[in-house]
Amino acid sequence: MEPDATVTDAVGEPDATADPLDGVWDVVVVGAGPAGSSAAHAAATQGRRVLLLDKAEHPRYKTCGGGIIGPSRDSLPPGFRIPFQDRVHAVTFALNGRFTRTRRSPRMLFGLVNRAEFDLRLVEAAVAAGAVLVTGATVTGVDQQPGEDRRTVVVTLADGRSVRARAVVGADGSASRIGRHVGVTFRQIDLGLEAEIPVPERVARAWAGRIHLDWGPLPGSYGWVFPKTETNSLTVGVISARGDGERTKRYLADYIARLGLAGFTPSVESGHLTRCRAEESPLSRGRVLVAGDAAGLLEPWTREGISYALRSGRLAGEWAVQVAEAGSPVEVRRQALNYAFAIKAGLGVEMRAGQLMLEAFERRPHLFHAAVCLVGPAWRAFAQTTQGHTTFAQVLRQHAAARRLAALASR
Length: 411
Ligand SMILES: Cc1cc2nc3c(=O)[nH]c(=O)nc-3n(C[C@H](O)[C@H](O)[C@H](O)COP(=O)(O)OP(=O)(O)OC[C@H]3O[C@@H](n4cnc5c(N)ncnc54)[C@H](O)[C@@H]3O)c2cc1C
Hints:
By secondary structure, the chain is α+β, with helices and mostly antiparallel strands. Helix content is 37%, strand content 27%. Helix 1 (34-44) packs parallel to helix 7 (306-325), helix 7 packs antiparallel against helix 8 (329-363) and helix 9 packs across helix 10. The chain is globular. It starts with 5 loop residues before the first strand and ends with a helix. Bound molecules: flavin-adenine dinucleotide. Residues 30-36, 53-56, 62-67, 138-139, 171-173, 177, 192, 194, 237, 272, 274, 292-294, 298, 303-307, 309 line the site of flavin-adenine dinucleotide.
């Protein structure tokens, strides 16, 4: 453990005397973002000895719009109160700054949070369920010795110390070390750029309850304004395929200027790569499972990842308990395959639909714009997807018109 590492026990009090690395843990979770906290919560509620490691101290900044759609809300631990910064009831759509149209919904579409606050509450829920949290602990690798002790995985930390576990969940984000150990591969890598812009109260009030989405000038790109009204701040971001950083940067600068926000100084400007897994990419190796961004689980079109992290994290925590209890390599493999099957049957199907949407959107963003702005059922499908009443996969399965639009746009 690094010298400044902090240990928090189930009561939430720092314990100066305990050495949290001792013994063999049932489940060690690497990374305390939404995926890791969900995994730790799921395993701890089954009464297992769970260690949750993160290199950062929470609350920590995370480049993210903080959009909490219906499936995210539905995957939170029981009793979890979302620290909403805003509740979205309206969307202003633009096509590269033109043909602007605002759509409104009497019912809330989705919520907006500050990620530092949201992630801290998730960590607290995992600790309250019994997980032991160690922060300031950077994991550098995992080792599974086939010959020596087949039941134990060794997790090494940056200071050279190690932790032993019956099962490991890698939830260490999009540049995951554990993902590399497992051999995760990607079919899509995008660059997201964001600015947190504190604004005067009157400007914040003008944005309250409304987001802005701009279908961008680069293929597959879009921009967003997500208001954080409680703290008089706007999160403005853009995302585009990796490889043209300069144009992506220019898109963000132009977007901010077009919105009349260039006069305000951002408090944070950051960038982050998002990665979507290849269809054949593994979700486990031996006693190690991966979840969330570490597994490349992300919606390919919108690049929404919190619900993917929460959902896959919970499944990984549940199946990690089974892996921990497995006594033979055959049984380990069976339980790990069960995890992969659960992911592929749910999130895998949604990712395939998202890929189709992205391919069509890359070619004909104007068709998408016209549809959400002018066609009632298309707007309702968009709204209901954000609310969690349906999914893109269901929309494509159930509505011939949506399939025709996607096919037309893909040509
Ligand atoms: C610009 C941008 C905007 C986005 N906006 C949205 C949005 O509005 N809504 C949405 O749903 N999704 C959004 N996403 C995606 C979302 O942020 C991610 O999908 C989500 O954070 C994934 O959660 P996670 O738990 O898998 O990983 P993370 O949230 O990245 O958490 C990983 C954790 O692992 C820790 N860690 C990393 N390496 C190590 C290590 N070696 N040892 C120990 N700990 C380690 C980190 O400190 C971190 O706490 C956005 C992404 C980007 C880039």
